[in-house]
Automatic annotation (TrEMBL):
Biological or metabolic pathway of the protein: Amino-acid biosynthesis; L-isoleucine biosynthesis; L-isoleucine from 2-oxobutanoate: step 4/4; Amino-acid biosynthesis; L-leucine biosynthesis; L-leucine from 3-methyl-2-oxobutanoate: step 4/4; Amino-acid biosynthesis; L-valine biosynthesis; L-valine from pyruvate: step 4/4
InterPro entries associated with the record: Aminotrans_IV, Aminotrans_IV_CS, Aminotransferase-like, B_amino_transII, BCAT-like_C, BCAT-like_N, BCAT_family
Record keywords: Amino-acid biosynthesis, Aminotransferase, Branched-chain amino acid biosynthesis, Pyridoxal phosphate, Transferase
Modified residues (N6-(pyridoxal phosphate)lysine): K215
GO biological process terms held by the UniProt record: isoleucine biosynthetic process; L-leucine biosynthetic process; L-valine biosynthetic process
Name the record gives this protein: Branched-chain-amino-acid aminotransferase
Any single Pfam family the record assigns to this protein: Aminotran_4
């Protein structure tokens, strides 16, 4: 399929936001309560006062663009998504800059991926304009909820699901798109400290021709049991191998993965169709290349990494994603091995890339690639 991506210009954004009818809540959270909620939010537990919403009907297309009070959805028990998981989502952040303005990072890339995910899940595509318009309309309405502290941001969760009450197995003729927002601090409770990773030998999250490169809820459901297994084995996150040969690294449940070799080259699993095309991954490939490192997207076997960890040729490993930003990996383990990554401490390049990326996102460094978009 093709997507018709284009950059949304600042002057165009006003018109896109104006399409959303703001039906503000008459019960906004009191200021003191909101400030308390913003002080140290645990990832994904606190939500703002509003949500953006657009409905789709097969015969009419997208309609009723609005921002309305955040609250429970009433669903018929036969609603298709509850039975067949026809659902997709995105993950993005809004960052407050020192002058109080609010920005987001490469939203067109999220809009494009959302459209690709929609295609794979037989859902209707939302235009880039509606995707970005909905986010800006919500962030402007709930601007007071964008936290200001270091490593804090307003996490944005656009999602779309089959809302038609119908038990037949076919693409739904009624669909809802919503975007909710949640003030967040660091994804991992310990802040930026190295995480340990369990390589699953028994489970895969995706296979050839499956939905691995779509951001659909089902992929995450499939990752929960192996993630639990990882935790039972004393690790923070699970890493999946490819389903065809059970020998190549793919990604974690919610993050892409990078390896830094002792010769300075930086490697990440190539996009095979079963890996999510991370926007953080893509941006890091650029930042690492800008620093003069050779970057290699290729198949990376577990055997090679195990040997490299044991022999010292693997110097650093890190995971990356919107929620996790750049997180050092300190240990890689499985049922038949347990390796510390170098000395187990955060790697130098890992932390330099993390700083460089967050400096751009928080407006502390020049946005030399034109990645940031002002929302409010
Ligand atoms: N891989 C998976 C499975 C994810 O859920 C995510 C998070 O969105 C990523 C990778 C990283 O993607 P991004 O950098 O676009 O957030
Ligand atoms: C993100 O990084 O935004 C994700 O969606 C990963 C996870 C929270 C599911």
């Amino acid at each position: 399929m093709t997507t018709t991506s284009h950059n949304v210009l600042p002057e165009e954004l006003e018109d896109l936001v104006a399409l959303f009818d703001v039906r503000g809540t008459d019960e906004p959270t009191p200021d003191a309560e909101r400030e308390e909620a913003l002080a140290a939010p645990r990832f994904g537990t606190v939500f703002t006062d509003h949500m953006a919403r657009v409905s789709w009907r097969q015969e009419d297309g997208w309609l009723d663009r609005r921002v309305e009070k955040y609250g429970p959805l009433q669903l018929d028990p036969a609603t298709a998504v509850l039975h067949y998981a026809q659902e997709i989502f995105e993950g993005m952040k809004a960052y407050k800059h020192a002058d109080g303005s609010v920005w987001t990072f490469r939203p067109e890339a999220n809009a494009d991926r959302f459209a690709r995910s929609a295609h794979r899940l037989a859902l209707p595509a939302l235009t880039v304009d509606d995707f970005i318009g909905s986010i800006a309309a919500l962030v402007r309405t709930d601007r007071a909820w964008v936290p200001g502290g270091e490593d804090s941001s307003l996490y944005l969760r656009p999602f779309m699901f089959a809302s038609e009450p119908f038990l037949g197995v076919r693409p739904a003729a009624e669909v809802e798109y919503l975007c909710i927002a949640s003030p967040v601090g660091p994804y991992f409770a310990g802040g930026v400290k190295p995480v340990s990773i369990w390589v699953s030998q028994d489970y895969h999250r995706a296979g050839p021709g499956g939905t691995g490169n779509a951001k659909c809820g089902g992929n995450y459901a499939a990752s929960l049991l192996p993630q639990t297994e990882a935790q039972q084995n004393g690790c923070d996150q699970v890493c999946f191998l490819d389903a065809s040969t059970n020998s190549y690294l793919e990604e974690l449940g919610g993050m892409n993965i990078f390896v830094v070799m002792d010769d300075g080259t930086v490697h990440t699993p190539e996009l095979t169709g079963s890996i999510l095309e991370g926007i953080t991954r893509k941006s890091i490939l650029q930042l690492v290349a800008d620093r003069g490192h050779e970057v290699v997207e290729r198949r990376i076997s577990l055997a090679e990494i195990e040997a490299g960890l044991a022999g010292g040729s693997v110097r650093e490993m890190f995971a990356c994603g919107t929620a996790a930003v750049v997180t050092p990996v300190g240990r890689l383990a499985s049922s038949n091995f347990d390796h510390t990554v170098a000395d187990g401490e955060p790697g130098e390049l890992t932390m330099a890339i993390r700083s460089e990326l967050t400096d751009i996102q928080y407006g502390r460094a020049r946005d030399r690639h034109g990645w940031m978009r002002r929302l409010a």
